[in-house]
Amino acid sequence: MLKRKIYDDLVAWKQRSGGTTALLIDGARRVGKSFIAKEFAENEYKSHMIIDFGNVPKDVLDIFENDSTDLDMFFAKLSVFFGVQLYNRESLIVLDEVQQFPRARQLIKYLVADGRYDYLETGSLIRLKKNVKDIIIPSEEEHLEMFPLDFEEFLWALNDEVTVPFIRQAFEAQKPLGQAVHRKVMNSFRQYLLVGGMPQSVLAYLNGKDFAASDAVKRNILRLYRDDVAKFAEGYEDKVYAVFDGIPGQLSKKEKKYRLSSLGENARFRSYEDSFIWLNEAMVVNTCFNATDPNVGLALSADHATQKCYMADTGLLVTFMDKGYTDNELYKAILFDKLDVNEGMILENMVAQMLRCRGHKLYFYSRCDKEHRENHMEVDFLIAEGKKIAPIEVKSGNYRSHASLDKFRAKFSSKIGESYILYTKDVMRSDNILHLPIYMAMFL
Fold this sequence. Notes:
This protein is an alpha/beta fold. It is built from 18 helices and 13 strands. The chain has helices spanning about 5-15, 35-45, 60-65, 70-80, 100-105, 110-115, 150-155, 165-175, 180-195, 200-205, 210-230, 235-245, 245-250, 270-280, 315-320, 330-335, 345-355, 405-410, and strands at about 20-25, 45-50, 90-95, 120-125, 140-145, 285-290, 300-310, 360-365, 375-385, 390-395, 420-425, 430, 435. It has an eight-stranded mixed β-sheet with strand order 7-6-8-9-10-11-13-12. Strands 2-3-4-1-5 form a five-stranded parallel β-sheet, with helices on both faces. The two termini are about 30 Å apart.
């Protein structure tokens, strides 16, 4: 059983809401939504009912279609069909894979108003137009995004609950961990880079520290994502495939902005915009937009035509990039700290993943000005810290310079608070820039 932080969020929702809202868990396929919903239902309620709309009998659909105007009969029939006794204010009804039957989601307004029970929804691809067509989204619905396991959750799976509290203290004090501890944490972090945070991949790896078993699970997940494209991106699936398949190649370039010219000589953003939106709303990728005028309201200057597409799970990217596990040189490169410049994209992808898990929307800064080199720069990530902007650069351990970061700090000095370099070495402050080991991205 994998311990997940989102469980505490579910408990907090139950206590805060008191039945006045339903909760929708939104996340990519195979991220663990159904499992956590079942665990929560079993532990926190006297009884529960799980209705899986991905595999629901027609008789149940008929109840939703024909009996929802009479809630007494509606609940009575569901109770008999599932063999579950429902208790006033002590039962939870889980609507699993609710995107498969949007009418059930629309009923939330009336179910919550009735007040008898609590309601938890789970869904993938929940924001796609196809899955909200012809329904009114209930205002009584709270949303909670679920991501792959973060690094701390991965360590919990390895029976390690002491490392993250220790490195949090070092982060807050801006003090190095020391060579031995840093090396140990980096060894665990490299495992996390390779395995990723998809629960099935982690469980496969735990059975004997088996990278091959983990890799096989990840390939199945990637195939599932491609199947979803065929099913839910009908009419423009070829363009979604093209954008998706191009992600590793785009990230391997020095400038990681997605170049549409790679998709075709005449490719234009307006023709592919829906494809980028589809992948982002399916939570298969983490999209990072160019903030052309860096300030605390980063979204206000976001150029949606200039973006970077990171895989939502770095373990999936490692598998996506190369051949079968036995021929995948990335495993050796990551484990033995031998990543070359291009493969450093793995580290950048992980930072994107960790920042999203922290609740940040992703932005970067890029400006091309070959005539005035002082204005030519690209900074990997920008986040808001209070009323200031914090620029973040991701570097290999042996990097030689940070010219873009220096130019950015000079140009926008009045708007910048702390500046960070995330790399593979220990905590250090140099040139008035806080250098952090990459695993500390979880605290930013």
